[in-house]
Design brief:
The chain is α+β, with helices and mostly antiparallel strands. It has four helices and seven strands, in the order ααβββββββαα. Strands 1-2-7-3-4-5-6 form a seven-stranded antiparallel beta sheet, with helices on one face. Strand 4 and strand 5 form a beta hairpin. It is elongated, with a radius of gyration of 29 Å. It starts with 6 loop residues before the first helix and ends in an 8-residue tail after the last helix. The model has no long low-confidence stretch (mean pLDDT 84). GO terms for molecular function: signal peptidase activity. Its EC number is 3.4.21.89.
Length: 190
């Protein structure tokens, strides 16, 4: 005598096995969590240094020199917002174009206001400098006032926007994809 199964019994067993929850592999859970946190951190940093300033008409710059340390350490991102120069007061940190009278060259500088002259013009000084800047800053040369800064992100941002940085970022994405493909989707059933 052979064993006979009814078609209905096989269908029910197949349906039961198909609907039984499968357990996600623990390593996949950990990798998903870590990847999610990294993406969240990258998006939050991008918002802090690009989206938020743009929403108020401001911009962000990487700090390249130590003239404003410890307030603005080298490698930080200084986030600036527009300012009405009539509202500037001593103690504000201004971003402005500094023009060298002798050479005619200009550079972008972020220093603290120490005095306001008629015009208005602003006497500025880097926090780490011993003396005031040599020439007052004209109101027309002011780009904005420091709103906030994000430490350590400037160096990373400057490296990532170049060709080598884009290659490294692409490599990291491919590595994350390879890890996702190598880790089993479901844990083995016992």
């Amino acid at each position: 005598m052979g064993t006979h199964t009814r078609t209905g019994d096989v269908d029910r067993e197949t349906a039961r096995l198909a609907t039984r929850p499968r357990h996600v592999h623990p390593l996949r859970r950990v990798l998903t969590l870590v990847f999610g946190l990294v993406v969240l951190a990258v998006v939050a940093l991008a918002a802090l240094v690009a989206l938020v300033p743009a929403a108020v008409g401001g911009h962000s710059l990487s700090v390249l020199s130590g003239s404003m340390e410890p307030t603005l350490p080298v490698g930080s991102v200084a986030v600036l917002k527009p300012v009405d120069t009539a509202q500037v007061k001593p103690g504000d940190v201004l971003n402005f174009t500094d023009r060298d009278a002798a050479t005619g060259q200009s550079r972008i500088v972020t220093h603290r206001v120490v005095e306001i002259l008629p015009g208005p013009e602003f006497v500025t000084k880097g926090d780490a400098n011993r003396t005031n800047d040599p020439q007052p800053v004209a109101a027309a040369d002011v780009h904005g006032v420091l709103w906030y800064d994000v430490p350590y992100v400037g160096g990373l941002r400057d490296r990532l926007v170049g060709p080598a940085g884009l290659a490294i970022a692409g490599g990291l994405v491919l590595l994350a994809l390879a890890l996702a493909l190598l880790v089993p989707t479901h844990a083995k059933e016992r």
